[in-house]
Every structure is written in C-alpha cells, then in structure tokens.
Amino acid sequence: SFINSINDWVGRIADAGATHIAIGTPYDPEFLPYMKLWVAEARKRGLNVWFRGNFSGWEGWFGYAKIAPGEHILLTKVFIRSNPDLFENGDIFTPCTECENGVIGDPRFTGDVDGFRNFLIESYIASSDSFKSISRNVKSGYFSMNGDVARIVMDKKTTENLGGIVVIDHYVSSPSQLASDITDIATSSGGKVVLGEIGVPIPDIHGDIDIYEQEDWLNNVLALVAKNPDLIGINYWTASGSSTSLWYENGEAKPALGVLSSYYKPEVLSGKVEDSKGRPMSKAKVMVDAKYSISDNAGNFSVVKNPSSSKLIVSAKGYKEVSIEVENSSKEGIFIVLQKENENFIYKLKLWIADIFGKIKIRF
Predict the structure, then answer these.
(1) Domain boundaries of the chain, sorted by first residue
(2) For residue 63, with 0-12 CB atoms within 10 Å meaning exposed, 13-18 middle and 19 or more buried, which class applies?
(3) 332 contacts: CB under 8 Å, gap ≥ 6
(4) Membrane spanning segments where (predicted)?
(5) 0.85 cut: is pTM over it?
(6) Closest Cα partner for 70 from 81, 57, 83, 87?
(7) Which pLDDT score, from 0 to 100, does residue 358 have?
(8) Around Cβ 69, how many Cβ atoms within 10 Å?
(9) CATH no., domain 267-356
(10) From CA 33, how far away is CA 293, in angstroms rounded?
C-alpha cells in the first residue's frame, strides 16, 4: 500500500544515517494529507524534515493557474501559521525550491537580479516571522538554486539577509569541479554552502555509468568536499525513481549507498589532551579536516572522523602543535601530550627528573 511504501522508504533513509528527509510535496491544501503521512513517519524514525516544496501555481503544476510572487508569499505565511503541528524544532523550510523556475523567472535570462533577490528576502522574512509566531525553531530560507544562478544572485549582502546560507542544486561532470565550485561560491557569497541536490549519474553529464562507477564517483567527491569547512550539508537526490537513485525500486541497496552512509554515520574519535606534566588540558583544539572539538576541563574530547580523514591535529595557545595519523587509531582512546613552545632549562630538568622517578607518565 501507499502508506507501507512511505514507511519503508523513510525507514531506509533513517537507517542510512540522514538527519533530515527532504519532502518535495507542494504546499497546496490538496496535497497536505499526503505530506502529513511522510512527516508523521519521519517523526517516528527520529528524523527532521526539510520541506522543499512550493505552491503548485508557482510553476503551474497539476493544472493550477500561475500565481504572482506576492501571492506566493502570502500563501506561504498562511500555510505555516495554519499548520503549526506539522513542524518541529530543527526542521528546514524552503518557501520555494529553485524559484527561478517559477513565475518570477530565471534572472540569467530576465536580467532582473535585484527583483529576484528581493523576492527571496521577502519570502525569507515572511516565513521566519511565521515560525516565530507559532514558536517553532525552524530554519527558513535554504533557497535551492542552480549553481550558475547562485553565482549572480547570492552576493554577500543578499546571503547575509538570507541567514548566511547558500543552497545549490548542482550537477557537474567531475568531483574536482564540484569541490572547486563550492569554494568559489562560498568565497563570493561569504556564506556557508549546502548541496541541496547532488547525485550521479545524470546521463547527459556523466554518461552511462554502472553502479560501481557510481560508487567510485560518489566516494571521490565526498572525500574532497568533506574537508571543506564551508560545506555544512549534503542532500543526496534521489533515494529512488531516477538514474541517480541509491536503491532499486524493490528496496535493494546499490553500492553507492554504503559510501554515503559512511559519511552520514562517521566514526567518532575520543581521547584526552594533557600537558607534559600529565595535567589535563582544557580548551585545546582538536581537528580532523573541517571538523573540530574543544577539550573540556578534564582534557577530554570527541571529534567526528570521516572515512577519508587521515590526520588529527591538536593545538593550544603557547604549545607546539601535534599531528598524528588516525586511520588506525585506538578505539580505546587517543592520548595527546602537548609540549610548551618555549620550555626553559629548569622546566626541562624538572620534567626529566619527574619522568625518571615515575611521578608522571608521558604518553604519545
């Protein structure tokens, strides 16, 4: 049945390690009962929801008459305020997905970049205010757009006015190109980047590749982009029903799913930082690629390690930086000792004597 199918697919997505499920159901009243089925199952599975829809009239879907930008904003406010139970803290809400496909037009062709920016900002303010009115901490905006649209629309001022987030639905031929584009867009916008859609293969872009080549492509791209501190989220598109799908229609997983899941459910490294006298060090910065943790008062830390990560770097003001390989790190904890940058002779002598008499234990 339809409900069983929803339950099965949401379960698979949750098991893959996702934090959110992206739902593209339109916001019109006609479709609300179907949206609620997806949302209810997501809650059962502990998932937040990324609402990635718009009103059908925006693009003229399903025979709906097209609606003007101002009407779309008004309908969005009504939708949010009329359905407070649909939302939970931590959800994401996009007023319109790839707005350039709607009535307002693609600014690359209309030339009305300022008008497009103003529509996004007005939609962002309207939805943000609406969520405040229903006491929900939902992240508004996250306007997914083609990467080329983002380059001309998302300048630093606009990005700041939209919460500092740039979302790109971006399909390119090579992993290195995607990694480079993320950096370029983050730099030009001054914001953090979310991949609103990433998937492979798109035959017109990647050619006809098999499931193992799909796995390799995804592995290569994730190894590159996971190191970028400007990238804060990845939404794989799609679960099923397209050339990029991670599952066959019968629910059997493709090899690429294992790659994505290894990044959605990464290993967590834990350990302790001490100084050369064996005293716990607080406020040490422990980094693995773009992820970092600050040690607590007991010197303890935990930090996420992606499958492609190889080095853990520990630093603290006034101490020498330490870098270690973490590919085969101990599951029982990593112990780091930081040495002062400038240790005088007396300090070194005391340390040497203490070490000889076993008063402290130096661990590396």
Answers:
(1) 2-264, 267-356
(2) exposed
(3) none
(4) none
(5) yes
(6) 57
(7) 52
(8) 19
(9) 2.60.40.1120
(10) 42
